[in-house]
Write a structure and sequence with these properties.
The complex is a heterodimer of chains A (about 325) and B (about 260). By secondary structure, chain A is of the alpha/beta class. Chain A is built from eight helices and 18 strands. In chain A, helix 3 (about 75-90) packs across helix 4 and helix 5 packs parallel to helix 8. Helices cover about 30% and strands about 25% of the residues of chain A. In chain A, strand 7 and strand 8 (about 130-135) form a beta hairpin. The longest helix of chain B has 17 residues, at about 35-55. Chain B has a nine-stranded mixed β-sheet, with helices on both faces. A two-stranded antiparallel ribbon of chain B has the order 2-3. The N and C termini of chain B lie far apart (about 60 Å). In chain B, strand 7 (about 140-150) and strand 8 form a beta hairpin. Chain B has two domains: about 1-210, HUPs (Rossmann fold, 3-Layer(aba) Sandwich); about 230-255, no CATH class. Chain B is α/β, with parallel strands linked by helices and about 260 residues long. The chains are: A alpha/beta (about 325), B alpha/beta (about 260). At the A-B interface, helix 4, strand 7, strand 8, strand 9 and strand 12 of A face helix 3, helix 4, strand 7, strand 9 and strand 12 of B.
């Protein structure tokens, strides 16, 4: 058993940044063991993608090609990767922590008697894998203690994707899995957009975002007034949209929009990972929260620890005064 | 439709959590516990499916004695009966070990549908439902917001990233992991709370479900996260802090 496999995910024949980050994590692991890194890409015809990946510093690229891998299904992906992993017997398999990976990797690991260490944010010598616990309030350090292979998925933004070009393209191999149409039990439809997007938070420069700390829908005018005074867009964390207090299109986070404004003012948002991945690219982050240990303060530039029902009106007035 | 809902009791969202003395987990003394949020949405989906199509809703949970309270709450909301897997060392099991307990406990029920929440608020592994499907040999779909029963089985709405969705058709029996926000959650009624007291909860000892295999993944240590940025906390009264922040926004961030 040797080598590290990294699964590169494609969406509409494009490779998302998180897959390059998974490759960076695999290379970090490789630095500990001097194991070669092999990149894997799945699809109906991955020739072009494999060529793109081969330009990266990897020992080899394996194309897992099959007509039944054209549209993602957990059954086909699990079968194909199970066969590949049995064939390659790697020590580690690194995956990007995407919605797709979350859908099949736990089953793939279980089928091989293993457990996926999911949503990893850091890799230390050992290897020791750090992932967040209690909605980001604590970190947990995990070790694989089984015979392996060890399956790891990495969180978006946790590892820096290097754009280093290899001197010569890596060799490309083709692996043809055996998949029968009858083994695929789910029928996926074409992806579609939710309600029409009328708010483009992605290009907003100033965002006031509200979370669970607001307690009631009736209290929302408080933060609306702040957003208006600031001249910014109103956004929210998931629970606010789940409750139907604000439309889904105003949701920031892994399931909503990703934003990178000049100012992100988080009001009553504790800062769960799913929210942080959507906004940590902001130039300046301000957090108003009653809990000084809230994880939002780990990424904030400025913080006010206090009752938002007192702080927000005071801030609205102070901004109005400053703009006069 | 016979529907199983796997639920988990987790520390209350607003509870102050402290790392325990061995740095292996959190100190559970004086901690308040509640039903995991996405599990509440899974329960809601099950109750609505039962109201539309008839059948039975069974909740299953594993953990120490305190989980009895959360099972009763689910019964008060409308679940018909419960399965309580007594397990005092849940923390020593990995995700496969926990899913195996649940799988063994629900197998004899031969349910049409098994629902779980998307992920727990404490460990946040997001794997139990998908592993459960694998162990039960059933098809699955994850991150589900809507469930519709069709002649052939189910049509479900799956959440994808960045505001995209997808419909998936799958046959029954099946396993779904439910994302929060698809339905409006109900509260238990007084009548429901009264009725819950007489509903059946089957107690199962984890040892009776077969020996747990040795964990292949272990949580070695719990630590406090390191700050990624040095946050400047603005002190004082709300007015003073607000004034200080406006100064920063004006002269340093330059957005006013």
């Amino acid at each position: 058993m040797s080598g590290i496999l990294v699964v590169i995910e494609q969406r509409d024949s494009r490779i998302a940044r998180i897959s390059w980050e998974a490759l960076a994590a695999a290379q970090k692991l490789a630095a500990q063991t001097s194991d070669p890194v092999t990149a894997v890409v799945l699809g109906a015809d991955t020739a072009a993608l494999a060529a793109e990946i081969a330009a990266q510093p990897v020992a080899k690229v394996i194309r897992v090609d099959h007509a039944l891998l054209a549209d993602y299904t957990p059954d086909a992906f699990t079968l194909a990767l199970q066969q590949l992993v049995e064939n390659e017997s790697p020590t580690q398999v690194v995956l990007p922590h995407t919605y797709q990976v979350r859908d099949y990797a736990p089953a793939l690991a279980a089928r091989l008697g293993q457990v996926l260490i999911s949503d990893v944010v850091q890799i230390a010598d050992g290897p020791v894998f750090t992932r967040q616990l209690m909605q980001g309030r604590l970190n947990g350090e995990y070790k694989a203690t089984g015979a392996g292979p060890c399956f790891v998925s990495v969180q978006a933004g946790a590892f820096r994707a290097e754009s280093t070009e290899a001197s010569a393209p890596a060799p490309i191999e083709v692996f043809a899995p055996t998949i029968d149409a009858a083994q695929i039990r789910t029928k996926p439809g074409k992806p579609f957009r939710g309600s029409s997007q009328t708010v483009d938070l992605g290009s907003a420069q100033l965002i006031v975002s509200v979370g669970r700390g607001i307690k009631e829908a009736e209290n929302l005018p408080l933060v609306e007034a702040l957003a208006t005074a600031l001249g910014g867009e109103l956004a929210a964390s998931r629970p606010i949209c789940d409750n139907g207090w604000l439309p889904m299109e105003r949701q920031v986070g892994s399931s909503g929009q990703t934003v990178a404004p000049k100012l992100y003012l988080a009001v009553g948002i504790s800062g769960a990972i799913q929210h942080l991945v959507g906004m940590k690219g902001a130039h300046c982050i301000v957090a108003i929260n009653k809990d000084p240990d809230a994880p939002i303060f780990e990424v904030a530039d400025y913080g006010i620890v206090g009752d938002l029902f007192e702080v927000v009106p005071a801030l609205t007035e102070a901004i109005k005064a400053a703009k006069q | 439709m016979k529907i199983i809902v796997a639920i988990k009791q987790v520390p209350d969202r607003d509870a102050q959590v402290r790392i325990d003395s061995q740095a292996k987990w959190i100190d559970e003394a004086d901690l308040q516990f509640a039903l995991n949020e996405s599990d509440a949405y899974a329960l809601e989906e099950a109750l609505q499916l039962k109201e539309k199509h008839g059948g039975e809703v069974i909740v299953v949970s594993a953990g120490p004695e305190r989980i009895g309270q959360t099972i009763r709450e689910a019964l008060a909301k409308g679940a018909d009966r419960g399965i309580n897997i007594a397990c005092n060392d849940l923390g020593s099991l990995d995700a496969l070990g926990v899913a195996r307990l649940l799988a063994e406990a629900v197998k004899p029920e031969n349910a049409d549908l098994v629902l779980t929440g998307l992920q727990s608020e404490d460990l946040g592994l997001g794997q139990t439902g998908v592993i459960l499907a694998e162990l039960l040999g059933l098809p699955h779909a994850s991150l589900i917001l809507h469930v519709e029963k069709t002649d052939a089985g189910l049509k479900v709405k799956r959440e994808l990233e960045e505001g995209w969705f997808q419909e998936i058709e799958l046959p029954l029996p099946a396993v779904l992991t439910i994302q929060s926000g698809g339905n409006k959650l109900r509260y238990a009624t007084l009548m429901g709370i009264k009725k819950a007291k007489t509903k059946e909860v089957c107690a199962v000892a984890s040892a009776d479900l077969g020996a747990s295999p040795a964990p292949v993944v272990t949580l070695e240590r719990v630590t406090l996260p390191q700050k990624q940025k040095s946050t400047q906390i603005l002190p004082g009264s709300p007015q003073e802090a607000a004034k200080a922040l406006v100064e920063k926004l004006k002269f340093e961030v330059r957005v006013l």
